[in-house]
Known about the structure:
With 458 residues, the chain is of the alpha/beta class. The protein contains 21 helices and 17 strands. The protein has three domains: 4-119, Beta-Lactamase (2-Layer Sandwich); 132-308, P-loop containing nucleotide triphosphate hydrolases (Rossmann fold, 3-Layer(aba) Sandwich), CATH 3.40.50; 312-453, Helicase, Ruva Protein, domain 3 (Orthogonal Bundle), CATH 1.10.8.60. Residues 389-393, 395-400 and 406-413 have low confidence and may be disordered.
Amino acid sequence: MIAIESLNIFLDSLEEGVIFLDKNRRVVAINKAAQQMIGGSREAILNELCPNIFSGTDCARACENRSCCNLVPKKGKDRVVEDVALKQADGPPLFVRKWATILPAVAGSQAYYAIMLRNVSHEIQLEQEIKERLQLGSLVGHSPVMQELYDKILRLAASDATVLVTGESGTGKELVARALHDNSKRAGGPYVPLHCAALPEHLLESELFGHARGAFTGATTERPGRFEAANGGTLLLDEIGEISPGIQVKLLRVLQEREVVRLGENHARKVDVRVIAATHRDIVAMVKRGEFREDLYYRLCILPLHVPPLRERKEDIALLASRLLKNLCERYQREDVQLDHNTLLTLETYDWPGNIRQLSNALEYALVHADKQVILPHHLPTEVRGTFPSAQPTIVSSPQQLVAKSLSYHSPISPENELATINRAVSEAGGNKAEAARRLGMSRTTLWKRLKNLDADL
Length: 458
C-alpha cells in the first residue's frame, strides 16, 4: 500500500494537473500543477465547485446543466477531451486540455472524479501558426507558389487600386478576390460579386449601373446597380473577358470618373468602390486581336495577380483533398470516410486540367461510389484514375497524416524520401521531435524507431 504522503509527493511532481472531486463535484484534493494552472492558493480551491473554477467555459455550462461531470466518457466510449482558456491575472490566457474519469470506490475516500489538466498553450500557438501558414481565408496551400500568392494578396490588399486576377478555370480566383477584400481596409464594407458571363448584354448593363423606372420594358421600379451596392466596399467582376465592346466602353468611363449613370437617367452618381476583375482568358491576346479594349485593360491591370494551376502545386493536393473530403462528408452525412494511400498517390499523379473544381468533383464522385469507409482508386472517375496499378489498401487515416504528406511531395516512399520527410517535419517543428511526431501522425516512439532504422542521427 502506498503511503498518502508518498502519493502526494508523486502527484505534485507531475507536469499534468490533477483535481479530485467528490460526487457533488467539489474539490477534495489538487496537485501543485493544477493549482498553478488555475491560480490562487490550495486552500481557496479546496471545497470549491468545479464549475465555479472553470466558470464561463462550455465545459462548466454543460456540467451545471447535467449536474454531473460532462467530461466522464460513456461506457465503451473514448475519453472526452475539451480545451478551455483560463484567464490569467496578467498576460494571455492559458489554454488547458481537460479530461476526466470516475475513480473506483475506496473505503474512506471522498474522491469520486479525477480531472486531468494539461497545459497546451504552446500546442495551440503552433497549431495557429501552422494554420496561418497553410491557408489565407478560404485559400488552402503550403507550397512555395501559394506562399508567394499569400504574400502578394496581403501586399495588394493594402492598396485601393484595381486588381486583375488571372488564372485557369477552377483555380479559386473568387477566393483570391474575397481574401483581397477581407484583408483590406474595406473589409467592413460590402463585398459584391458579379459573374459577367452569366447575363446577356442588356441585363448586364442594368446589373452593373442600375436603371430608372421605365428605362426598358419591365422596369417598373428604379433599381441601383452593383457599383452602387458595393459603395464603400469591393466589387468583383468575374469573367471580365466575356463582356461586350459596348459594356467595355461604359465600364471604362466608370473606372475613370468613379461615377455611374443609371439606364434611363442623365445624371451621374459618385461611387467609392474598389474593383477586382477576374478572368481565365488571355486578355493580352484578346487586346492584340481587337476583342478587348487596350485602354480598359490598362485600367483593370494596375495590379496584376496570377493564381497558379493545381499542376504547379501538387504538394497541396493532400491538404486540399482533406479539406474538400471533410466538407463533402458533412454534406452527405458520412462519417470517417478515409482516403486510401494509393488513392492519394493517384490524385497527385493526375494533372487536373479543371484544377480544384475538378478535384472537388472527383472526390464527390468517389464518395458517392464508395460503399464503405475507404475511398480506393477505382472509386475515382475514369479520367482521373487512368491506369494506376491496383494495390493492397493502405489507409491515410487522418487529416494530420495528410498534412504530414503535404510537407514533402513525393512518389512511393523510399528510405531517402522518408528521411527527408521526417527531417522536414523536425525542422518545421523547430527541432522538437515530439511535435514533429504529432505532425506526422505517429508517436514519439515510432518516430525514434524509424530514425533508428534509417541510421539517422538521433
